[in-house]
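Design review, sub-item: ligand-bound model
Attendees: FS, YL, KQ
YL presented the inputs for the NAP complex:
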Amino acid sequence: MSTLLESYVAGRWHAAPDEGRPLLDATTGDEVARVSSNGLDVPAMVAYAREVGGPALRSLTFHERAGLLKALAKHLGAEKDLLYDLSARAGATRRDAAIDVDGGIGTLFSYASKGTRELPNDTIVLDGPPEPLGKGGTFVGQHLFTSRPGVAVQINAFNFPAWGMLEKLAPAFLAGLPTVVKPASPTAYVAEALVRQIIESGLLPEGALQLVCGDAGTLLYELGPQDSVAFTGSAHTANVLRDHPSIATGGVRLNVEADSLNCSILGPDVTEDAPELDLFVKGVVTEMTAKAGQKCTAIRRVLVPEPMAATVVEALRERLSRVSVGDPTDPDVRMGPLVSLAQRDEVRKAVEALRSTADVVFGDPDHPEVTGADAERGAFLGPVLLHARRGATEPHDVEPFGPVSTVLTYDDLDDAVALAARGRGSLAGSIVTHDPDVARTLTLGLAPWHGRLLVLDRDDAGESTGHGSPLPVLVHGGPGRAGGGEELGGVRAVLHHMQRTAVQASPDMLTAITGRWTTGAARRDDGTHPFRKSLADLHIGDTIASEPRTVTREDIDRFAALTGDTFYAHTDEEAAAANPLFGGIVAHGYLVVSLAAGLFVDPDPGPVLANFGVDNLRFLTPVKADDAIAVTLTVKQVTPRANADYGEVRWDAVVTNAEGAPVATYDVLTLVAKSWDA
Ligand code: NAP
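KQ shared the predicted structure:
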C-alpha cells in the first residue's frame, strides 16, 4: 500500500488534499508512494524560515551549529537502514545507497569538524587582516562575513536524494541560513523519510529545515534579495530557473550544478603493460556502473591516444561483460535499474543520438540481460559502450544520464585538451598518467574547464577516492555547461552563503564591532599581569608592556651553541658583514622570540595552561649585538571552548627595538582556564 508523501511546513506535516502522482518502484513497477504539493502554504513556509528558523540559528555560534550537525550525523548513522531499503526501490544497490546515504552522513561529520576547527566560536567571520587605510593608523579597513537574514531554497536532482540534501544543508546551516529543501519527485520518498528522521530527532532548531514534496509551485516568487536558490539538475531546468523573475531581476542568488560531459584521459605515456592502463579501465567501468551511471560526475567521454584505442576498447568490453544487471537487493547484482521507465527511455534516445557518429561496441540498450527481475517491468538498461568516429560531435553535446560512455581518440596533448574543452565545462575530469610532464600539461590545459581534476597513477591509486566522488573538503561544481556553480570545498561553501562586507573605521570602532583587538586600538593596563587573569576576567585589549632587555653578543653565541644554529649571519663576522641585508652579526630570529617570551611571561602557576603555537610570525628589523628589545603583549581574541573548562586566547605580540621600530610581530596562542582560584 502506498502513502502520500507529506511536506514539512511551519512546524507541521502537510498532506495534499488530492491523491497525488504515483511514484513507481524502479525494479517492479509497483507503486511506492504518491506525491503532490497542492495546498501548500508557501508564504507561511518562507515567513517561518525567516522569522523562526533564521533567528534561532543565528543565535548560535558556528561551534554550536557544528555541534548540532555532529549530533545529527550520529543520529542518522543509527537510522540508515530504512533509507537503504527505500533507496533499493529507486534502483540503488547497497553500494549505490552507501554512496548516497553514508556519503551524506559523512558530509555532515566533515562540516561539523570543519566548523569547529576552522570557524571561530562566534557568529561572524573576519576575512583577512585589517588593511591600514591612512598613514596615521586611525583609519582601517576590515572584511567580515555576516549571516544573511534569508532562506536557502535547495532544489535537488533525483539521483542523490540523501547526499544531495545533506551536502547543501550542512554549509547553509553552518552559515546560519534556514533551509527549504525540494527533492526531485522520482525519489522524494527517500528524501521525505530522511527529513522525518531529522525532524523527529529534535536536534535542529525549529524552522531550520522545511520540506516541499511535489512541485515547487510559487516558492520562488516568495523569495527576495537575502535569499538563495541552490539547484542541482538538468541544464534545461537550470535555464528555466535563470529566467525566473525572482532570479533574473529580483536579486535572488542562484547556484547551479547542472549536467556535465566529464572526461577521463589516458596519458600517451601509458603502455599496455603499465599499471595505469588497468586503473584507467577500472575507473571508467566504475563510473559507468555506479548508480547505473546516473551520476553527474560519471565519465561520459573516454579520451585515449589513437594507437591505444583498440586495446582500451577490448579491456573495457572484457570488464563490462562481468557486470551483472538485475534486482538491486540481490548482493550478487552489480548494477540495478535506472530510476524510472521514463529515465530509461531518455537514455535510449541519447544512445540513438550518439549512434549517428559512434558505433556501439558493447551492450544492447534495447535488450538488457537481467537477473532476478522482470526486464520489461523494471527500468533496466545494461552498460553501453560506444566508439566514436573521427570528428564526432554528439559525444560532446549529448548527456546519456545512465550507464553509457563513448571512447574518443586524440592525436597529441593539445588535441586531448581541445576535445575535453568541447564539453563546454565539466564537473570532474581525470588524467591517468605516470609522466609528470603529461600531468602538468593536461592539468593546466583542463583546469579552466573543470571544477575538480583527479590525476591518477600507481602512486596514489591505493588511496584515491576515484573520479566521480565529490568530497566535502573539495570544491564541487564546474564552469559553463556544468552550471558555473560551486558547492562544498570545506568552509568556502559556508562563506558562499554569507555576505562579505568591507568595514572602514577607526581601530577602536573595529575592535568594538568585531570583538577582536585591532592594531591601533586602545590598550588596557590595570596593573594586574594578564597571565594572572582567568578567561572570565580577561578583556580584549588587556596589555603587558615589558622593560627593555639588551641582546648581547654572548647571548647570540650561547644560543648558537645551544641550538646548533651556527648559520654564518650569527657567527661569522666577515661573512655576516658581506651579507647585503645584515651588514654584520645579527641575533637569530628565534632568539628574539625566545627572549620576548622571557620578557612577557609571568612565571608562577596560574590560569595560563599552555602555549599551543604562534601565527603570522614576521621578522621585520635585524637585531644586532647590544640592541635593546622590548615586547608588548595584548589580548586580541578570547574564545571559550564549548566542551572544556578552558579556552583559547590569541595575543598580539610586538617586539620593538630602542628606536621603537618593530623587530618582530606575531600572534601568541595560549590555552587559559575559564576560572582560577589564586
Ligand atoms: P531535473 O529534471 O532538472 O530536476 C531537478 C530538480 O528540479 C527536481 O527537484 C525537479 O523537481 C526540479 N524542477 C524541475 N522543474 C522545476 C521548476 N520549474 N522550478 C523549480 N524546480 C523544478 O533533473 P533530474 O532529472 O532530477 O536530474 C538529472 C539531471 O541532473 C542530469 O542532467 C544530471 O547531469 C544533473 N545532475 C547534476 C548534478 C551536479 O551536481 N551538477 C548532480 C546530479 C544530477 P521535480 O522532480 O518535482 O520535477
